[in-house]
Amino acid sequence: MGGLINATLGNAAELIITLFAINKGLLELVKASITGSIIGNLLFVLGLSILAGGVKNGIQKFDRRHTTNNTILLSIAILGLVIPSLFSHSTASGVNQKVEILSLCVAGVMIGLYALGIIFSLKDRRNPSVAPTEHMELHQTWSIKKSLIVLAMATAGIVWMSEILVGSVEHVVAGSGISEFFLGIILVPIIGNVAEHLVAITVAVKNKMELSMEIAVSSSLQIALFVAPVLVFVSLLMGNPLNLVFNTFELAALVAAVIVSYFVAADGESNWLEGAALLVVYVIFGLAFFIFPS
């Protein structure tokens, strides 16, 4: 539940940013940020968390079965993003309209799968993360009223900053030479999810790798199965339809990130070298996206 809440609140900032981008018609920036968020959480955030946790605590253990289930769902989500992209190259008449319809259908199915995944995780009593614990760490917490007030103020601040960020995209692209694609796939996800990143790293250092893994993987899963599909429907209402068609570079990065993160999590253990390896893969992708902008 902690991982789910953290992923949801962490992704709220990026959702707000992408809504402003859709309103301005920056659809390629939105799709790049979706890709960047998924690979960023699986490679950058998870890599930093495993590296920091490994340096501080040595080999760390986590629930392999639960992480594998999430990775399987993530693989299906990536498949859902690949299918419209493949059929967009069809030579059939009216292909653009058909791809848009296919994107809407796929988005609806993916939201349903995400709901089923949450229900399974919360109902699964074999999962150690939902089992009762005998030793609980007690900390003084905020009241619900104070929490809601702070959350509302933070959301208002995010809305204001998101409008400024999206409004400056064209000026940054023109003045710095950085492509809109690189801005969306690398910079926007890091900026939008910085608080979530810090939490994942902090709990890993505290030897709570189970929660850190849940935050990183659940965030990617939520982006792929919930945020991206929701944006498809919302963009239609806003008059700037967003389809689930991604370029070859984005699809290759998504598939590679899921495969690499699966192999890291498959044994239920992590060490600092695996974290460093994930970061190296992310840096390679970042260099490729910077040198060869889409």
Characterization of this structure:
With 294 residues, the chain is mostly helical. The longest helix has 31 residues, at 27-57. The protein is globular, with a radius of gyration of 19 Å. The chain is built from eleven helices and two strands, in the order ααβααααααααβα. It has helices at residues 2-23, 27-57, 64-87, 95-123, 144-167, 169-176, 180-192, 194-205, 209-238, 248-265, 272-291; strands at residues 60-61, 269-270. Helix 1 packs parallel to helix 9 (209-238). Strands 1-2 form a two-stranded antiparallel ribbon.
Instruction: Give helix % range.
Output: over 70%
Distance between the termini: 38 Å
Name the strands of the widest sheet in spatial order. Answer: 1-2
Broad structural category: mainly alpha
Coarse shape? globular
Keywords:
two-stranded antiparallel sheet, 11 helices, 2 strands, globular
Topology:
Elements: H1 2-23, H2 27-57, E1 60-61, H3 64-87, H4 95-123, H5 144-167, H6 169-176, H7 180-192, H8 194-205, H9 209-238, H10 248-265, E2 269-270, H11 272-291
Antiparallel strand pairs: 1-2
Helix pairs in contact: 1-2, 1-5, 1-7, 1-8, 1-9, 2-7, 2-8, 2-9, 2-10, 2-11, 3-4, 3-9, 3-10, 4-9, 8-9, 10-11
How would you briefly describe this protein structure?
The protein has 294 residues and is an all-alpha fold.
